[in-house]
Amino acid sequence: MRAIKNLFVLLLIVAVLAVIGGIALRVARGKPSGVEEIKQGIVVASSVSSYVYGAKVGNKVILFDAGADPAGSPIDAVLGWLHASRSDITDVFATHGHGDHTAGVSGLGKVRLRMGAGDLALAEKKVAPEALAGKA
Question: Which residues pair with 50 in a beta bridge?
Fold first, then answer.
């Protein structure tokens, strides 16, 4: 009986830690790191191991990935560094269709989202990531 009680306590502790970890990730995704210029005119900001790269070309901005934050906090950090606004973004190039690379697109209005054809169904949530495993 004591072993069952110990197992129950252990499971309860793991569940509480999982909930705390989930909350921490949700809070952290909206707080981007500082913006870093990696080359002249090309900058990067990260949030919860998801990166948003931005480059200004004339008065237009292109992004590479849009981050995991649907509110677009890392995007706004990149735009602030580039002295640009969301309306200056013309294109977002997504490296692949996972939500941690595409979630920020939803708040950008009319931009061209560019990605590989194989990732389109994933980004539109029409197929689960597991369904694409092993396909090349």
Answer: 47
Cα–Cα distance, 59 to 114 (Å, whole number): 20
Tell me the CA distances in angstroms from 98 to 8, 31, 67, 68, 122, one per residue in order: 35, 20, 10, 9, 7
Q: What's this model's pTM, rounded to 2 decimal places?
A: 0.69
Element (H, E) at 20: helix 2-29
Structural domains for the chain = 31-132 (3.60.15.10)
The secondary structure element, H or E, covering residue 52 is strand 50-57
Token pair belonging to 104: 């920020």
Q: What's the pLDDT tens digit per position in 35-75?
A: 889 998 899 998 767 899 999 999 999 999 999 888 899 99
Q: CA-to-CA distance for 15 and 11, rounded, in angstroms?
A: 6
Q: Which residues contact 102 (CB under 8 A, 6 or more apart)?
A: 65, 66, 94, 113, 115, 123
